Amino acid sequence: MNSVKANAIDLAYDSFGDEAGEAMLLIAGLGTQMIHWTVPFCEELATRGYRVIRFDNRDAGYSTHFSQCVPPDFGALAAMLAAGRRPDVPYTLYDMAADATGLLDALSIDRAHVVGRSMGGMIAQIMASEQPGRVLSLTSIMSSNGNPSLPQAAPDVMAMMMRPAPDPVTDQAGFLSHSLAFRRRIAGTGYPFDEKAHRALVLEEVRRVYDPGGTGRQIAAMAVTGDRRSRLATITVPSLVVHGVDDPLILPACGRDTATSIPNADFMLVDGMGHDLPPALYQMVVDAIGRTARRASNG
Description:
The protein is an alpha/beta fold. It has a single domain (2-150, 210-298), classed as Alpha/Beta hydrolase fold, catalytic domain (Rossmann fold), CATH 3.40.50.1820. It has eleven helices and eight strands.
């Protein structure tokens, strides 16, 4: 793992494949670390000739944490947004997109294919709309566009996500039970839930850095970023939107609306996929990302 100064913070990253290849930047989702882009997935992309780069977002993993900022009161945050007022938050998704662009700068990469999952998909969309000269192609996976009229997550899923987890230091068993129950709930029905692999990933994230306050600040960043449809309409690079039929956290309608918002975007709706990316889908998703990237290279 490496670290660079980007956008005035430290970003941890690593990379796979030929450094002379076109860059493929992978952006992680809410409260997760770069290791959610698993090594086999990254290596599958790298075999296609890309320099694959994954990194920890701010407030996640080994990148800078904004621990000096108190996590938001979500009730007060929601009330202010409902009243049409903009809450004061430590940062927005636009700042997180600037982090990703800053990472490219630090690595002397002019342009990259950008792939994001969940919140990372939102950040990738912002990069493609606000920094079009830096993005070769866009892939947005299990994400949304901020349209306030779209359906919300299933109530039980939202309740599980917002429920405080036990402290993994003092109650590792309780923490694992809490985390695995949520991951099982948002997983799709079409592929076996690999509890052993998920357990290992949960424990590895805790070993790296555990910061629930960081997740809260990222939620606030998402909440205030707002409707991006008018900006997505300006995207001109080849774009792909991938979504699972079974996603109960960000519903398929959100993916469809995102694809509709981006001119000429391809929409891939995957049967049996939830709000996760099981290994059985790696090759299919990598193939689709590669086709989108080649559209940029051949254009």
